[in-house]
Amino acid sequence: MERTFSETTLAPGAALGFVRIEGGTFSMGDGEGNAAPVRSVTVSGFSMCKHLVTQREWYAMMGNNPSKFKGDDLPVESVIWQAAIEYANKLSQKEGLVPAYTMNGNDIIWDRSANGYRLSTEAEWEYAARGGNGSPEDFKYSGSDDVDKVAWYGKNSAGSTQPVGQKAPNTLGLYDMSGNVWEWCWDKYASKYPSLAETDPTGATSSPFRVLRGGGWSDSARHVRCASRVRGLTSYQFSNRGFRLVRSLLGDSTSTVLDDAANFVEAVHQREACIECGATFFSSDSMFCWNCGAKYLEDAAMFCSRCGVERKVPESKDKQTSIAMFCNECGRPFDSNDSNFCNECGTKR
Fold it and tell me: I want to staple 190 with a disulfide (CB 3.0 to 4.6 A). Which of 83, 123, 204, 220 is the partner?
């Protein structure tokens, strides 16, 4: 299965930011080291964010940035496992979803019936890295047998993380599944796999460690292969550890949006007024989203951090928009159609 997506990084809640991955069966592990024994695993369908959580996204939600290497489009790193769980819950609450986790100190329970954001299981992660049902890619690394084509690792990373989505994606449209930063998973770590086939496994029943997958910017090529796995204490921070989000497919309306992202965006672009206030769209250079009214996080932002809609208004909309209804500088609505200046900041209409 192959999906085509925009090359530009989107906010995690945006429809195009997620790839729907149908359930299926694959051979998990490659027999090397702790990725053994190879056995048959079946996973249910889920959706996965096509990119690692970025520092821009983390800061917008958490108000801090623990990363060693700073940059809006760099993956957030030096994140402990519990903080990744907290981020997933906060984003779910912000978007009106049911949080996947109940947190009581160090006691964290996953509600598998919840539709909110969460970490992938180890099996889901490898299934996605290999291209989905039956591991159709059959590559050593996620998307290629050429490690330099798909991964930032010790030999090409220049000693730091790199902006997400710069290497080639795999056939599911997922970026940086190999390299850049190790990704936290839900599972407690076991030093080897069970030998029997499993369905939707979630790791060891007891362990002080959680699983990390994918390899990082400082690792050898061996550690960025699809099957590579390591353990990590949940309270330790390292500059090669980050995460990405997934959601369960539960047959609800939000899953339908994820399944039909292209139609969703097309419908948004056909709107002639803001879905929240009914005002006509802003001009294409506005500092506020023409779809939902949210302020762009930075001058060069190409997508809205709230709704994920592309900043540039389609050409047909520019021609239809005869007058701006909101100030381009401060976002305040103009008092009337006859107002030539904003009463709030004085900017010319």
Answer: 204
Residue 103 backbone dihedrals phi, psi, to 5 degrees: -110, 125
Q: Residues of the chain with pLDDT > 90: what percent?
A: 64
- Between strands 246-248 and 46-49, the pairing is antiparallel
User: What is the Cβ-side half-sphere exposure of residue 312, based on CA atoms within 13 angstroms?
Assistant: 6
Kindly list the domain boundaries of the chain, sorted by start residue.
Answer: 15-248, 272-349
What is this structure's pTM? 0.71
- Does residue 211 contact residue 201 with C-beta atoms inside 8 Å? no
Q: Which of 62, 15, 211, 218 is nearest to 126 (CA)?
A: 211
Burial of 231 (0-12, 13-18, 19+ CB in 10 A): middle
Average pLDDT over residues 179-192: 97
Residues 328, 283: Cα–Cα separation, whole Å: 8
| CA 72 to centroid of chain Cα atoms | 14
46-67: pLDDT as tens digits: 999 999 999 999 999 999 999 9
CA distance 82 to 107: 10
Q: Are 216 and 179 in contact (CB under 8 A)?
A: yes
- Helix or strand holding residue 230 (H, E): strand 229-233
Name the phi and psi angles at 219, rounded to 5.
Answer: -95, 165
Q: Are 3 and 85 in contact (CB under 8 A)?
A: no
